[in-house]
Amino acid sequence: MFSLASRRLVNAATNNSRFFSSTAVMGKKVAVLGAAGGIGQPLSLLLKLSPNVSELSCYDIVGTPGVAADLSHIPTASSVTGNLPAAGSWPPSHNTGIEAALTGASVVVIPAGVPRKPGMTRDDLFNTNAGIVKGLVEACADFCPDAVLAIISNPVNSTVPIAAEVLKKKGVYNPKKLCGVTTLDVCRANTFVAASMGKDPKDVNVTVIGGHAGITILPLFSQVPGFSPSDEDREALTVRTQFGGDEVVKAKAGAGSATLSMAYAGYLFTEEVLRAMNGADDVVQCAFVESSLTDAPFFSSPCKFGPDGVTEVMGFGEISAYEQKWMDQMLPDLKKQIQKGIDFANQ
């Protein structure tokens, strides 16, 4: 489901003339909240290359004017702005910096927050990142209530429910427009399976369901045509997909988490949302959304996207006995992580 977007990125990088074609008039304003961070900078770079973006709005608590100035020298048709939180004033005023960043945005991508370090789980990030996401989504509710929100900030299993509760309190919640970005799990599964099969990753499409942390990530390898791994290989690939983030955290030895691959995944997700907004009727990608597929109130599964966000939360088909074992093990943890987010937003 991501091979088309991947090819578009390659074409864009090698043929700048496309940015000055008629497709530019269909561009949208995209805001990146946390644009100066480890994910935000490469994500903003990739979005600057997209012909579907007419204005790239960068926001962070530090560094965004410099990031925006740097990006503005790239010869593509989109404009770039960089906003910081507004300075205090008297009488007290709201944050005009984030208002400028968000007003008119069609899509808001939120990678803001602190990264994982060795030994940390995504849940360890909760106390810091939960507050950050809550504040940013409150601003989204005020200044771009109709935008599609793409939540990257971990732990996604909790931050998406936080966002939903904030939007409900503001009276602007639309489940079609709130998504947790689980695309990196799909990218990892595609990469690992393609290597195992000796295929090009663009020719592999693994459905990954559940959540976006550890055992809540469930790749459905049984649905990959022609893939018949041994029990040992299937177990290894499943666990590597679930804990691929730990692999990167350890390899970076305290210097960060998965930033470049997450930026690429966030770009792919956003690009497909924008294509659907522009009328493409073939956009199906996995996302963590409000769902009735299981007894968990949020669940990641294939979703069809249209001009107004998610148009259909699709089923995930038949799963193997092995995958059902993981499903049974995963759901209690997923529901607890979702409830943790709900409780935080309502405390």
Reading the helices and strands in chain order gives HEHEHEHEHEHEHEEHHHEEEH
- Report the oligomer: single chain
The strand count comes to: 11
Strand line-up across the major sheet: 3-2-1-4-5-6
Structural class: alpha/beta
CA radius of gyration is 19 Å
**What level of helicity do the residues show?**
40-55%
Work out the helix count: 11
Q: pLDDT average, as an integer?
A: 91
**What low-confidence regions span 5 or more consecutive residues with pLDDT below 50?**
4-25
The shape, in one word, is globular
Fraction of residues in β-strands: 15-25%
Q: Determine the N-to-C terminus distance.
A: 39 Å
Largest sheet: 6 strands, parallel
Describe this structure in words.
- Keywords: NAD, Oxidoreductase, Tricarboxylic acid cycle.
- Residues 182-344 form the Lactate/malate dehydrogenase C-terminal domain.
- This is Malate dehydrogenase.
- It catalyses: (S)-malate + NAD(+) = oxaloacetate + NADH + H(+).
- It is a single chain.
- This protein is an alpha/beta fold.
- The protein has eleven helices and eleven strands.
- Strands 3-2-1-4-5-6 form a six-stranded parallel beta sheet, sandwiched between helices.
- It is globular.
- Mean pLDDT is 91; it is low at 4-25.
